[in-house]
C-alpha cells in the first residue's frame, strides 16, 4: 500500500479541487445563463446579480419542436443502445472465449472501423440511405447509431469477458451447459457492471451525436443537438434558450449515471486485474 505524506495529500486535494472546478464551472455558467432574461444574458459586462427567471424553461415546455426532438433523442438513443448491447454480448463472448480461424483478424477489423472519421463515410451513408428510403426517418438514424457504437461495445465487452476467470465456465460446461447457456447464465451476470458501463457509453455517444443526425434528419425527426444548432443564426441567438435546452438535455444521462454509479465504478475498474 502506498503511503502519502501530509504535503502529498494537500497537493492531491488541491489538484482534485482544480479538476472539480474546471468540470463544474462550465455547467454552472450554463445554468446561470438559463435562468437569466434575454437582456441580462446579452449584457456586457456580465450581470452577476440578477432576478432568476424560468421563462426559457417555460418556453421549451410549450415548444412542440423541442418536445418532439427530445422524444426523438430518447427513442433513438434507447433503442439503438439496447440493440447494440444485445448484438455485442454474443459477438464479444465469441471473440473472448471461442476458437476459430482468423479470430484475431476479426477483432482488429471490428475495432478498426472506429478509426475512420465519421465525415469520411458520411456521403456514402447518405447515398445508401437515400436509395433505401431511410433518409429523414428515425429508423435510419437508429441504424447509423448502431453502426457507430457496435464496434466499441464489442471491443469493450471482449475485454470484460477476457478478465473473468474461466474456471467457473469450465465447471458449468462439465455439468453439461452449452456455450450459449454459459454465456447467459454465468458470464452475463458476472460481467453486468462492465455491460452497464458499455451501455452508458453507447447511450452517451448516441445522445450527443450530431454529424449524422444533422445530415439525414428533417424537422420532424431531428434530435435535440440538431434543434439547438438550428437556433443559432447570424441575425440572433437566444443563448438563454440554448442554455436551458442544454440543462434539460443532460439531466437523463446524469440521473442514469447517479442511479447506477456503484456498478459504473465497478465496471470502470473491471479487467484491470486478472
UniProtKB/TrEMBL annotation:
One of its GO terms (cellular component) is plasma membrane. GO terms for biological process: transmembrane transport. InterPro entries: BP-dep_ABC_trans_perm (IPR050901), MetI-like (IPR000515), MetI-like_sf (IPR035906). It comes from the Bacteria. Pfam families: BPD_transp_1. It is found in: Cell membrane. It is a multi-pass membrane protein. The chain crosses the membrane at residues 12-32, 74-96, 108-129, 135-157, 190-217, 237-260. Residues 70-260 form the ABC transmembrane type-1 domain. Part of the ABC transporter complex MalEFGK involved in maltose/maltodextrin import. Probably responsible for the translocation of the substrate across the membrane. This is Maltose/maltodextrin transport system permease protein MalG.
